[in-house]
Amino acid sequence: MSYAYAKQEHVQVRVARIFNTFGPRMHMSDGRVVSNFILQSLQDQPITVFGAGKQTRSFQYVSDLVNGLVMLMNSNISTPVNLGNPEEHSILEFATIIKNLVGCKSDIVHVKEQEDDPQRRKPDITKAMGMGWQPKVPMIEGLNRTIEYFRQELFQSSHNQKMILRPDDKLV
After folding, report:
1. What is residue 172's predicted lDDT score, i.e. its pLDDT?
2. What are phi and psi of 106, to 5 degrees?
């Protein structure tokens, strides 16, 4: 669709194929694996892994994505460019990493595998590297930043709920 628009309007377009991205300010209940695992760990809930957890994913920190998008927009590349971290982790390994970083005692539980769940997602970032881009933030560092953000949001949320006055509450 982008290329049809570019042809019709005689403009240049850039197409980024964005892989799993995480970081502070991501929505805590967006249903993605990063937010699910962090939230479950911080609340000492069971960490749910679909199937055996052997499916792989790669995860990039949000600032790496933003830098990649800026570089792509400033480039002359007219074909799709993958922006992601080629470092692969199994979902089970990823759950264990987050559990350990949070320091929780949550159990990892396996639930029925989703039918349409891809077994592997690993970007080929050759084109991105050709424009001088590659991820810089180590996954553990990015996860620690994201966990701290979630921890603060949960604290703030619980604090705000305690401060809410209902119509029948009496002020002393």
Report:
1. 41
2. -60, 145
Kindly report the CATH number assigned to the domain that includes residue 73: 3.40.50.720
Residue 62 lies in a domain: yes
Stated pTM of the model: 0.86
**Structural contact between residues 119 and 53, judged by C-beta atoms closer than 8 angstroms:** no
d(C-alpha 65, C-alpha 85), whole Å: 9
Interval 141-170: pLDDT, tens: 999 999 999 999 999 887 676 544 444 544
pLDDT confidence of residue 164: 47
Is residue 139 in a domain?
Answer: yes
- What total number of domains does the chain contain? 1
What is the DSSP code (8-state) at residue 48? E
> Residue 94 belongs to what domain range?
2-154
Is residue 55 within 8 Å of residue 117, measured between CB atoms? yes
Burial of residue 16, with CB atoms counted within 10 A of its CB: 0-12 exposed, 13-18 middle, 19 or more buried: middle
How high is the pLDDT of residue 158? 79
The answer to whether 26 and 34 are in contact (CB under 8 A) is yes
Distance between CA 109 and CA 48 in Å, rounded?
Answer: 5
Per the domain annotation, does 170 fall within a domain?
no
What pLDDT is stored for residue 96 in this prediction?
Answer: 98
For residue 171, being part of any structural domain is answered with no
